[in-house]
Design goal:
- The protein is globular.
- It is low in regular secondary structure and 129 residues long.
- The protein has two helices and four strands, in the order E-E-H-E-H-E.
- The termini are far apart.
- Helix content is 12%, strand content 11%.
């Protein structure tokens, strides 16, 4: 009844990673932890049966920072001028859903838009990245 971390094996079967990591987040995304996951024999992990819900690809997201109008075609399709500097904004982390989850549209929404060209996970602390 709760989400668990998983991985797809070479045959497209979902395998349970919960004996090795608690979640695909935080310390599990650090280079040393990812090296340990790479060393696992995926075919020896327990297979997940049935058609489970797939959650978001990572959990416990700290910040969700977005860059808008970051290429000329995007500015043109919105009718906006090309900005002299990047348009930086953030989204609520509750906006992150699994690949087949229903997207909640706010009541009285007149226009809903979505897109992503690149998602970056920064696995270590830093400043001015």
């Amino acid at each position: 009844g709760q989400e668990r971390p998983g991985i797809l094996d070479p045959h497209g079967q979902i395998r349970d990673l919960s004996q090795h990591i608690a979640d695909l987040s935080g310390d599990a995304l650090l280079p040393a932890a990812l090296d340990k996951l790479r060393a696992l024999d995926i075919n020896q992990l327990p297979r997940v049966e049935g058609q489970p819900r797939l959650g978001p690809c990572v959990g416990h997201i700290g910040k969700f920072i977005c860059i808008g109008l970051n290429y000329a075609d995007h500015a043109a399709e919105t009718g906006a001028a090309i900005p002299s500097e990047p348009v930086v904004f953030n989204k609520w982390t509750s906006a992150v859903v699994g690949p087949n989850d229903e997207v909640q549209i706010p009541r009285d929404s007149l226009k809903t838009d979505w897109e992503v060209e690149l998602g970056v996970i920064i696995g270590q602390g830093g400043r001015y990245i």
